[in-house]
Design goal:
Elements: H1 17-20, E1 33-34, E2 40-41, E3 48-51, E4 57-62, E5 67-71, E6 79-82, E7 89-98, E8 109-110, E9 117-124, H2 132-135, E10 142-151, H3 159-162, E11 174-176, E12 192-197, E13 208-213, E14 217-219, H4 221-227, E15 259-260
Parallel strand pairs: 1-8, 2-15, 10-13, 10-14
Antiparallel strand pairs: 3-6, 4-5, 4-11, 5-7, 6-7, 7-9, 9-10, 12-13, 12-15
This protein binds N-[(R)-[(3,4-dimethoxyphenyl)amino](phenoxy)methyl]sulfamide (BEX) and zinc ion (ZN).
Zinc ion binds next to strand 7.
Length: 262
């Protein structure tokens, strides 16, 4: 039995996580509502740089909370650097959060507005920490790049992911997913907001430097609908619970500053 069971339902959802994860009521929890004109422009906040060219995706899986693409993080091939980061952070995995049909599903909101979905690219500080696990509990251990998805036209590369979702329909399913470069999921502008926060799922570690891109990417309702055919439940589970609304709502800002790149 690994850890505590948690989910996004009525009984095991975000409002109950504090019972097993008291840090849920901590001072640097995520996500938050971003209010652009309250964010402070920092001239010394440089551009972020993603270098995913030789990245090595390994597999795609359904972990019962989202669909996750894992990367080989044994060297500095695929990193994010610059901006608020003191050194390069290694790409470990990316995953998505989304809502029900026609509803918001992003975790961060902007002036109270949610987006249809939010993509998180999770990176860890391999310069200061020996392992991902060690980094994940350190205050500057992780850097998560957040990208909003809004509905509109088909995204020309997202089909590479939606085409294989049927292979990971059930919790616990995993399949090879090689040669995918997440550069293709970035919007044209890398302008961002940044603040100190946490993982948005248990264990809710307060170890994340958040970098949220201002420009959303566009995906079609049809592509987003493919994510909703995933299930929270395992193949032999007679309940077929559709995977949707797997997002935590915004948490108290607790005096934190949100900074904005120019
Ligand atoms: C420290 O290593 C971890 C890193 C991340 C997350 N959870 C992550 N948090 S988030 N939303 O802030 O990126 O959420 C999910 C949600 C669905 C799928 C996979 C990640 C959990 C981790 O250890 C368990
Ligand atoms: Zn996430």
């Amino acid at each position: 039995m690994t850890g505590h069971h948690w989910g996004y339902g009525k009984e095991d959802g975000p409002s109950s996580w504090y019972k097993n994860y008291p840090v849920a009521e901590g001072n640097r929890q995520s996500p938050i509502d971003i209010v652009p004109n309250e964010a402070s422009h920092d001239r010394d906040l440089g551009p972020i740089m993603t270098n995913y060219d030789h990245c090595t995706s390994i597999n795609i899986s359904n972990n019962g909370h989202s669909v996750v693409v894992e990367f080989n993080d044994s060297d500095d091939r695929s990193v994010i650097k610059g901006g608020p980061l003191d050194n390069p952070y290694r790409l470990k995995q990316f995953h998505f959060h989304w809502g029900g049909k026609g509803h918001g599903g992003s975790e961060h909101t902007v002036s109270g507005e949610g987006f249809a979905s939010e993509l998180h690219l999770v990176h860890w500080n391999a310069v200061k920490y020996k392992t991902y696990g060690e980094a994940s509990t350190a205050p500057d251990g992780l850097a998560v790049l957040g990208i909003f998805l809004e509905t509109g036209d088909d995204h020309r590369w997202l089909h590479m992911i939606t085409d294989v979702l049927y292979m990971v329909k059930y919790k616990g399913s995993i399949t090879d997913f090689k040669g995918f470069n997440p550069n293709c999921l970035l919007p044209s502008s890398l302008h961002y907001w940044t603040y100190l926060g946490s993982l948005t799922t248990p264990p809710l570690h307060e170890s994340v430097i958040w970098i949220i891109l201002k420009e959303p990417i566009e995906v079609s309702e049809k592509q987003l609908g493919m994510f909703r055919m995933l299930l929270f439940t395992e193949e032999d589970d007679d309940q077929k619970m559709r995977m949707e609304n797997n997002f935590r709502p915004p948490q108290p800002i607790k005096g934190r500053r949100v900074r904005s790149s120019n």
